Amino acid sequence: MACCSSFLLLLIRLFFIFFTLSESAVQIQGLGIGINYGQIANNLPSPSRVSVLLRSLNISRVKLYDADPNVLVAFSNTNVEFIIGLGNEYLENMTDPIKAQNWVQQRVQPHISQTKITCITVGNEVFVSNDARLHSNLLPAMQTVYRTLVNLGLDKQVIVTTAHSLNILSNSFPPSAGSFRPDLAEYIQPLLNFQAQANSPFLINAYPFFAYKDSPSQVPLEYVLFQPNQGFMDPNTNLNYDNMLYAQIDAVYSAIKAMGHTDIEVRISETGWPSKGEENEIGASPQNAELYNGNLLKRIQAKQGTPANPSVPIDIHVFALFNENLKPGPASERNYGLYYPDGTPVYNIGLQGHLPGVPGVEFSFASKNIHILPAVFFSFLIYVIAILIWV
């Protein structure tokens, strides 16, 4: 009986070691990829099921466009880092310290002890609109939200920034000559000064797809899809660019430098490729989307930097997790997802996950063919213990 007890104790120890090593392996295999979790659809799975899907994919960084409490609760105690958003419609209110404090206390504080909220984006692509009032409210709103975080002791955990469209640039090629639009200088200069002071990254939504769609005869498809190609030489730096996204990133760095700052990191808050589009949306196809996101994923995994900043790995959130059937605009807008709402992949880029629908969830990870079947494993363990106790 003592022998059986010792064996049982050994089995239990092995059980805990197995799961400890499994968890460590998962952390080691981190893909380093972020994902945009948009919800403009009426057929998406529940946040709790999405939580399991993303963890099965080993994706640990998620960007929301709001601060949906259902999502934040669903990801409690998961170690997934969240960027949450304040829509453009909130900017005027956020210039009021009382309203900003109320928002942070209602939307951030109740979740931050359980869910890793690391960033708040105040507004999204504000300068795409011609609304001068919106432009003027952006920086004061960011400053007020930041001061609120400072007052509440949260500024070391949560950074404040905003996401821009690439159209804030007046010139993007060659990358060394990147510059902001002159009409936006009065807004961007003080914005950069604030971000440098607050140690806040500069976020850009960059889509090489648009450049190819607009000029397919002038923009080589291989260049935008990270395929082998001769690339383009920057005549000012003699740096060679073999893909458009990296050229866009370095162009933004150059534009920031032209305004006197070399202390702000550029990150990509959105990039992706649609798997379907209108007839005039040349290049929108599952094949091209698979190539773009698959090749991008390989570069992220390699911790690759851009030619002008080779020591700074690109920081990217891919757009998007699901196809969103209620998004307005051309067909491409509804077809950027890596997954259909039922959890099946739109195309294969090596990410293997599972959207749960029944007990006994299967997890699988892209870099290793690991399958953990909790229900089966526990059943087997209980069966073995029962036999040992009976003996």
UniProtKB/TrEMBL annotation:
Residues 1-22 form the signal peptide. Pfam families: Glyco_hydro_17. GO terms for biological process: carbohydrate metabolic process. It catalyses: Hydrolysis of (1->3)-beta-D-glucosidic linkages in (1->3)-beta-D-glucans. It comes from Acer yangbiense. The lineage of its organism: Eukaryota, Viridiplantae, Streptophyta, Embryophyta, Tracheophyta. The chain crosses the membrane at residues 372-390. One of its GO terms (molecular function) is glucan endo-1,3-beta-D-glucosidase activity. Coiled coil: none annotated. Keywords: Glycosidase, Hydrolase, Membrane, Signal, Transmembrane, Transmembrane helix. Belongs to the glycosyl hydrolase 17 family. This is glucan endo-1,3-beta-D-glucosidase. Its EC number is 3.2.1.39.
